[in-house]
Amino acid sequence: MLITHNFEQYIVRDIYNSGYRNLKILSSNVSPILVTKMLDEFYDLNLKIYVGMVSQDGISEFTHLAFQHLVKRYVNRLEVYYQITKPGQHSNVYYWESPLNLGLDQKKVFVGSATFTLNGFCHRNEILVEHDGDVEQIFDNLNIIDCTSANISEEIIIHHNKESELIVLYEDEQLDIFSLTKEGELESNYESINIPLTIRGGETPPKSGINWGHNGRNGLRQPTRTGNEAYLPISKQVHRERPHFLPQRREKMLVLTDDGEMFVCKVAQEERKAIETCDNNSILGAYIRQRIGVASGTFIETRDLIRYGRDSVQLTKIHEGLYLLNFATNLTLANCEDHLWDIEDRGTDILQENENMQILIETVFVRVPDLNIDVYGGLICSWNENSKEYLIDSDLIIIKTLGTDDIVYDEGGSSLIVAVSNYCYSVGRESNMNYLESLGCEIIIEN
Q1: Do 214 and 318 belong to one domain?
Q2: Which residue, 52, 55, 53, 58, is CA-closest to 160?
Q3: What is the share, in percent, of the chain residues with pLDDT greater than 70?
Q4: Which residues fall in a coiled-coil region (predicted)?
């Protein structure tokens, strides 16, 4: 039997549906994404994975950590091993062991060029053939180490190079998924939707969406919930304008994030109005809270999203069943002042006061880790004898050493970015405006 397409159907689904459950795979390279997809779709499938070229090529940190995570997640269903002696194994063997308890005594074996990766199974021109010989000796002769071994780093090279499996061959071009957010290709080449994390009026939802596990703005959790339960809301307009963008209800979808995480999600609820993580609907909420820097289980306020610098996520369809979730903050020194104005009550404390003048400092400030500074807005107020009160004379920018009360610079009447530029010049630091405007920052809201 010669197979040149639909490998998932012929190599996995058909054999599984006929009663086989235990699949051993030797492949030069293996995709954790494809492993996740198979184990989620075939509930009784047991996989033993042998990655053949690790001794020769090493393995990326992304893939290695993904395998370790998956072995724990699919305990008793997944084992992953690396070949550790050179020159490695470039063979690709799919070996269904005999399920004697089901009365089937014939082993199923397929060999060929198709690796157990997205590219090998879905995008490249590959070939597999059914083989009736004995392949057990191939697996027996491997020199392997368990991916969860404590001394794994002594046996293999774990590198930080770009993960080749995330460079997907798609419509005759190479697509580096994670670089899309930086190169501006998403909007022009791939279908995307923007999913707001707030409701009408700009507030976070009181007990739905990212706050699904809560019972209103009082911070109380729903009984028996963790507080991390969450889903991404999908509007009717999305389905009306893009009816084939998302899978059908309950169908699985693999979601990669711009920071290298990976989730198995499904479309849920009536009218397909939600996306949630499959294993546990708290996974997504925990991820969002960790990303924006609030405690696990916390009710997410609008100001938490403002401080982070983003109140929506972008979901891009790479191909059927594979999506990229972009939640990268776009908060930089070039645009942080716009975000500050979205905070209705920035609050002030008295920094200095005498009989003639009062200096106020805001309780909201901008943290710039690359410059090791915190940048505050302030106000200079003069005493007015007629009204018997302090009146505002001018704005003030106050710069402190990061995380301290040590004031290192102040300047009146300037924008934040100009004051930072002048501060850098005064201390002999790089002050090129393009460089400063590109610096990432964080808005800190003091209680």
Answers
A1: yes
A2: 58
A3: 90
A4: none
Same domain for 243 and 139: no
Q: What is the pLDDT of residues 163-207, one digit of tens each?
A: 555 555 444 555 555 555 444 555 556 788 999 999 987 899 999
At 263 the pLDDT is 82
What average pLDDT is seen over the chain?
86
Let me know whether 158 and 12 are in one domain.
yes
Q: How many CB atoms lie within 10 A of CB 318?
A: 19
**Segment 21-46 mean pLDDT:** 90
Sign (positive/negative) of CA torsion 338, 339, 340, 344?
positive
**Predicted TM-score (pTM) above 0.70:** no
- Assess contact for 267 and 259: CB atoms under 8 A: no
Asked if residue 142 and residue 10 are part of one domain, the reply reads yes
The closest of 12, 64, 62 to 39, measured between CA atoms, is 12
Domain membership of residue 331 (yes or no) is no
